[in-house]
Structure formats: structure tokens, C-alpha cells
Specification:
38% of the residues are buried. Strand 7, helix 13 and strand 8 (379-385) form a beta-alpha-beta unit. This protein has 19 helices and nine strands. It has helices spanning 6-26, 36-60, 104-107, 110-119, 136-139, 154-176, 214-219, 242-248, 263-269, 287-294, 303-317, 332-344, 367-375, 400-408, 410-419, 449-453, 455-464, 481-486, 493-501, and strands at 198-207, 230-239, 251-257, 274-276, 284-286, 323-330, 354-359, 379-385, 431-435. It is α/β, with parallel strands linked by helices and 521 residues long. Among the domains are: 6-60; 145-435, Rossmann fold. It has a seven-stranded mixed beta sheet with strand order 1-2-3-6-7-8-9, with helices on both faces. A two-stranded antiparallel ribbon has the order 4-5. The protein is globular.
């Protein structure tokens, strides 16, 4: 993509230079008798002046943009440094000028309309990825992301959004064909992974231990998938591109898990009594989550069995290479991601580093479970929207800060330790990256529960988050198209009305998965 005004400006400069030089060669009409030497001096003077002027303009003007002719889906690192990369035209956009003032809806300039049209474009654009080879363990959480969250590191932002898009691919795959046939495990589904350097190696299914009467299916035969016990819930993918492996510093194995979609999954969500994940162990987790993770289907293994078997197979296949395991999930998928990471961490003596990137995840277990995950070396980054109620259940909500202050008080620590053994004594796990939908200039302050928990809204907020004292950067780049399409009633009228005025095609079926655009250096 190019800025239309840049190239014509430079071409105009060259055109004026040629005209001035030609004019000097002919002599001025006001002085037709000018000598050849005078004309030569004038010509040289003009050339020198224009040359100096052009250098001055090039020094202060942005460099001309180069069209990226690579396929959009590739999105691979080209080895350029942040200083040498091509600037994206959106980097000069000051969205603060058109944020809160509703009068902007009436008198927005053509330039701002064009910028808004670009932000509402459904075409995905991919940001350049810096080389993480020497710091990949840091971005994978070896130091619990200390120093990378506030302000949010540009590379970490890009990685978090990328893992969120892996989950979006899981949602899209499930909703395109929610029914699960008896022989589906033998014929894996096609998953349109957003990062083409990864290949899918395993389809994953979760099974509920509950069941609904057969007459429920008779009432709505076309919605039988809503009551099926086993459902496709995600996939395992491995990086298979040597260039990307070199950029990341290791071969990455991704496990992506979608959120709740069927009736039985909702039923499991509310089975919120804590039970032991292993006999005679203090660590306890929610009964419903454990059921979906551990229950086998009539013709398929449990989610736990499938994951452990596939990860061990990949470890053997790539034995001797530097590996990492990234588990990412949204909502229910975030809860299952914790259970998976915890079990994987002890399933082999030489297990690669494991990190969990969870979006809108509920509490999963008690404090002993949180301590167990930490002890096993699993690193967890929880992305939490302050307005998302799902992140405050199950159990009684107590802020993490208050909980820690109470535990530091020796007078009440003993009481809290006793409460940890109660049936609903839940605790969050890992490090938190907190965003807030009220800080988005595009979303309504009173956005509903569904919007505050929506995955695309989460990625929109992560892309915009800069720091706790500046919650939304005005040069955020992520396309608004999918946000408007999926959460139109929660987007400010300014943007929905302009989307209609611009006659943008926001057809869900034709929608491409958006991606994070370049951040400023």
C-alpha cells in the first residue's frame, strides 16, 4: 500500500526541475539577448538550487513506500531491522482528532474519512516480525514477562495477537462444521491457520461426561451438534518453516483451543465444585473443566490423551532441536489450556519450556493448583479485560491485589489458608496483562458482557494497549472491520455510521482473519 501524495509530490519536483532547466537553456523572455555564458551560469545555478532543494526535501520528508509484493498469507520475517523497515502509511494517523467528538461524524475531513476507510478495511495486513532468536525465552515467559508488560513490548504485543489469531482459526473451523461424525478422527479437518509457517498435525476433541435425553435431539434434529458429547475443540500445529524457526530461535509447537460452543460444554462450565485432579493431592480444579479434559469419547481418546500422545510424538520427531510449547485458549479454552500445560509439564523428563497465553480465562483451580503449575515451571500470561465478568468466576471474587495483601498479614494468613480448602476457594494463575474495553476510543463505555468477553475485542484491546498510564495508543493499527461486523451494537455510532456511509462490505462469510499491523519503532 502506498500514500498517494508521496510519489506525485516527488514526480512533481522532477517535473519542475526539468522545466526550470529548459527555461534557463532558452533564455528568459524578458531578456532574449542573454549571452551563452549567462545562460550557462543560470542553468548551473538552477541545477544547484534544485539539487539542494531536493536534498532538503528528502531529508525532512518520509521515504517513498515500497509495495510489498509477497503473498499476504506468508507474513514471514525478511531480516530487516526496525530502523530499515518500510514505514506503514497508518503510522502518521492521529486518531485522537476523531475519537470522542461526535461532531466529527458530521464534519470529518476527506482525509480522515479515507483513514477510517482503511481502518475498516477487511483486508488483512501483516506486521514485520523482529528477530527474537536471542530473547525467545524471555518472550516465552522465562522471567514471567518482567519489564515487557508496562509499557507493553512491541514484539510481545505482536506475539500475543498472533496466538489469539490461532484461536480464531479454531473457532472458524468449528463453526464451519460443528457436527462430529463417528469416523472424524481418521480424517482430520482442514484448519486455515493464520500463520502459514505452521502446519496442523493433530485435531483435538473434548468430551463431556454429561448427556442429554434423546428426545432433545428429536425436537431439533438440525441442531443435534448442540447436544453431542464429543466436539472438535482445537488443534496442534508445529512451525515447519526454517526461516521462521530461525527468526523465533526455536521450533514452536502450538496448541490452540476454542471457547464454549455446545450445550453440554455450557453445562460443564457451571459444575464449579473443586475436585482433586490427582488422588490425595491438595491441588484441585473445577469439576466441569476436568470432565471435558479427561473424559474419552465413544470412538476417540480424551483431550488429555490426545495431547500427551501428540506432543511426545513431535518431541521424538524433532529430537535434538530446540523446541517450545505454546498453549493458547479463550474462555473455556483458556481453562483447558491450564490443565493441558500442567499435565504436559510432568509427562516427560525432557519436556520443552511451556507457556500459556490465555484470553478471558475463568479461574480453574485452588491456590494449591496455582502453586503446582508454578512449581512445574509452566509460565502463564493471562490477558484480562477489566470489564469481562468471566475472568472473575467461578468462586467468590476477590481482587488479586487484596488477596495478596491479606496473605501478607500474618494475623489473617492462617484463616485464608483454611479457606483455601473450601469447595469454592478458587485462585488465578500466573502473570496478568490487564486491558480495559472502556479505554477503547471505538467501543461504547457501556459495551455489553458479550462484547467484553469477545476474542476479537480482546485482540483489538491488546493491539491498542500501550501502558497502564496510557491504555490505548492513538496509532493502533488493527483493522476495525471484524469488530464492527461482530460487535456493531457495541461500537460507537460514529464508526458504524461511517462504515455504512462508505458502503463497506462486511459480509461474515467473506471475512478474512485480521492481523496486527506494524507498530511504530
Amino acid at each position: 500500500m502506498q500514500i498517494a501524495s508521496t510519489v506525485p509530490f516527488q514526480n512533481g519536483l522532477a517535473f519542475r526541475a526539468s522545466r526550470s532547466t529548459s527555461f534557463a537553456r532558452r533564455g528568459s523572455r524578458l531578456n532574449p539577448s542573454a549571452s551563452a555564458s549567462t545562460q550557462r551560469i543560470t542553468t548551473e545555478s538552477t541545477r544547484t538550487h534544485l539539487s539542494n532543494l531536493e536534498k532538503l526535501l528528502q531529508k525532512h520528508a518520509p521515504p517513498p513506500l515500497q509495495r510489498d509484493t509477497r503473498p499476504l498469507q506468508k507474513d514471514s520475517y525478511d531480516g530487516s531491522s526496525p530502523e530499515n523497515r518500510v514505514k506503514h502509511p497508518f503510522e502518521g494517523l492521529h486518531l485522537s482528532r476523531i475519537w470522542p467528538e461526535m461532531k466529527a461524524a458530521e464534519d470529518m475531513s476527506p482525509r480522515h474519512l479515507n483513514q477510517l476507510k482503511r481502518l475498516l478495511s477487511k483486508l488483512p495486513e501483516y506486521s514485520p516480525r523482529n528477530n527474537l532468536g536471542s530473547r525467545w525465552r524471555e518472550y516465552h515467559g522465562c522471567n514471567d514477562w518482567v519489564g515487557l508488560l508496562d509499557p507493553l513490548d512491541e514484539n510481545l504485543r505482536r506475539e500475543v495477537v498472533r496466538f489469539g489469531e490461532f484461536i480464531q482459526a479454531a473457532y472458524h473451523t468449528f463453526h464451519s462444521n460443528p457436527a462430529t461424525s463417528a469416523y472424524e478422527t481418521s480424517f482430520p479437518r482442514h484448519v486455515a491457520v493464520p500463520d502459514k509457517s505452521y502446519k496442523v498435525t493433530k485435531n483435538l476433541f473434548a468430551t463431556s461426561s454429561l448427556g442429554l435425553p434423546s428426545w432433545v435431539d428429536d425436537l431439533a434434529p438440525d441442531l443435534g451438534w448442540m447436544t453431542q458429547r464429543s466436539s472438535w475443540i482445537g488443534y496442534v500445529a508445529v512451525c515447519d518453516d526454517q526461516r521462521e524457526i530461525a527468526r523465533m530461535g526455536r521450533r514452536d509447537i502450538v496448541i490452540a483451543l476454542r471457547g464454549t460452543a455446545t450445550c453440554l460444554e455450557w453445562a460443564e462450565n457451571v459444575r464449579d465444585v473443586l475436585v482433586s485432579s490427582e488422588p490425595n493431592q491438595p491441588a484441585k480444579v473445577e469439576r466441569g473443566f476436568l470432565s471435558l479434559y479427561k473424559t474419552p469419547g465413544s470412538n476417540m481418546p480424551s483431550l488429555a490423551e490426545s495431547l500427551i500422545e501428540e506432543v511426545r510424538r513431535l518431541m521424538e520427531q524433532y529430537k535434538g532441536e530446540t523446541l517450545s510449547i505454546t498453549v493458547t485458549g479463550h474462555s473455556l479454552g483458556a481453562a483447558l489450556a491450564l490443565l493441558a500445560a500442567d499435565e504436559l509439564s510432568t509427562s516427560a523428563p525432557d519436556m520443552p519450556p511451556i507457556a500459556v497465553f490465555s484470553f478471558g480465562g475463568p479461574r480453574v483451580g485452588n491456590r494449591a493448583f496455582a502453586d503446582q503449575i508454578s512449581k512445574n515451571g509452566v509460565k502463564v500470561l493471562r490477558i484480562v479485560n477489566s470489564q469481562d465478568v468471566i475472568t472473575r468466576v467461578p468462586g467468590m471474587f476477590v481482587s488479586e491485589e487484596l488477596d495478596q495483601k491479606l496473605r501478607d498479614n500474618s494475623k489473617v494468613a492462617g484463616v485464608l489458608n483454611m479457606l483455601d480448602n473450601m469447595p469454592w476457594a478458587y485462585s488465578h494463575v500466573g502473570t496478568e496483562l490487564r486491558v480495559d474495553s472502556k479505554m477503547s476510543p471505538y467501543l461504547k463505555p457501556n459495551a455489553d458482557v458479550a462484547c467484553c468477553h469477545d476474542l476479537e475485542a480482546y485482540l483489538h484491546l491488546v493491539d491498542g494497549f500501550l501502558a497502564s498510564n496510557c491504555p490505548f495508543r492513538e496509532n493502533a493499527k488493527r483493522s476495525l472491520a471484524r469488530l464492527v461486523n461482530e460487535q456493531g451494537s457495541n461500537v460507537k455510532k460514529l464508526y458504524t455510521s461511517k462504515a455504512k456511509d462508505l458502503s463497506l462490505n462486511l459480509d461474515k462469510q467473506a471475512f478474512a482473519i485480521p492481523s496486527c499491523l506494524p507498530s511504530p519503532s
